[in-house]
Amino acid sequence: MKGFGPDTFGSLYADEYDDLHNPGTTEASVDLIAELAGDVAMLELAIGTGRMALPLAGRGFDVSGLEASPEMVTKLREKPGGRTIPVMMSDMADFQTDQSYGFAFLVFNTLFNLTSQHAQIGCFGSVSKCLTPGGQFLVETFVPNLARFQDNRDVTVSKLDKNSVWLEAVTHDPVEQTLSYQRIRYTPDGVKIAPLVMRYAWPAEMDLMARLARLELKHRWGGWQREPFTAHSEMHVSVYEKIG
User: Fold this and answer.
1) Which pLDDT belongs to residue 4?
2) Which residues does 191 contact at the CB level (< 8 Å), separation at least 6?
3) Which of 130, 134, 19, 111 is nearest to 64 (CA)?
4) Rounded to 5 degrees, what are φ and ψ at 243?
5) In whole angstroms, how large is the CA radius of gyration of the chain?
C-alpha cells in the first residue's frame, strides 16, 4: 500500500485512537513494566496518546517518549499530566538521542507498523545505542496466524448491530511478510475506510534482529501475566538485555 509512512497511522487514527484501540491489558502491562524496570529512566517508543506512559509517570517513574505523529502527541498533551512527559519527534526506525535509558519498551504490535525488515532492524539498533549496559528492551507483538487466509485474503466482521457493520479486509504478502488492511465502517452517517499496513516478524526473526543489535533474549512470555509461551500462544511479551 503506497503512501503509508511513519506518521500515517497517527494522521488516520489519532482522533479515535483511545476509543477504538484499547487492548484491555493496560493495568497488567503497566504492572509488569514497573516491576521489570525498577528505578531507571524509561523510554517508550511510539508513546502515542499516553496509554502506558501516563500511568507509569503517575507512579513516579522517569518516563520519556518517542513518537512520529504530531496528532498523537497533541492528544497526549491534552490529558492530565501529558504536558510534563518529554517526547522526541522521530521515526523509531532511526533515531538518536544523547539521553541514556535503563529500560525501553514498544507495545501493542507497534513494531509491526515498521513495514520492512530493514526498518525493524534499525529500530532494535537505535534502541540498543541508547540503552545502558544491562539495560532492557521489552516488545509486545502478536504471533502471526496464517491459517486464517484463503488465497492470501481474509475478510472478517468486527462489529455488527442494527445500525452499523464494521468489516476488516486484509491481503497477505508471504514474501514481504506484510498485511495490508482496509477497515470499513458502514453507519447511518456514511462509509468510512481506514487503511493499515503491518510487516509481521516471527519471534525467532525478532531474536536475530536483537542479536544484531547486541541484545539478548532474557524473557519471553505468552502474555502480560507471564503465561508460558507455547506453540498455541497468540502473542508474546519478549524482554531483551543489552550485552556489555
Assistant:
1) 55
2) 184, 185
3) 130
4) -90, 120
5) 18
State the cell numbers at 185. Answer: 465502517
57 forms beta bridges with: none
21, pLDDT greater than 90:
no
E strand residue ranges, the chain: 42-45, 63-67, 87-89, 101-106, 131-142, 153-160, 165-173, 178-187, 190-199, 215-221, 235-242
Rounded CA separation 80/137 (Å): 27
The residue-averaged pLDDT of 193-198 equals 94
Identify the band that residue 133 occupies on the pLDDT scale cut at 50, 70 and 90.
very high
Cβ atoms < 10 Å from Cβ of 95: 19
HSE-CB at 93 with a 13 A cutoff on CA atoms is 13
Q: Residue 14's pLDDT is what?
A: 63
Among all chains, which residue has been given the C-alpha cell 532474557?
A: 218
pTM score over 0.90: yes
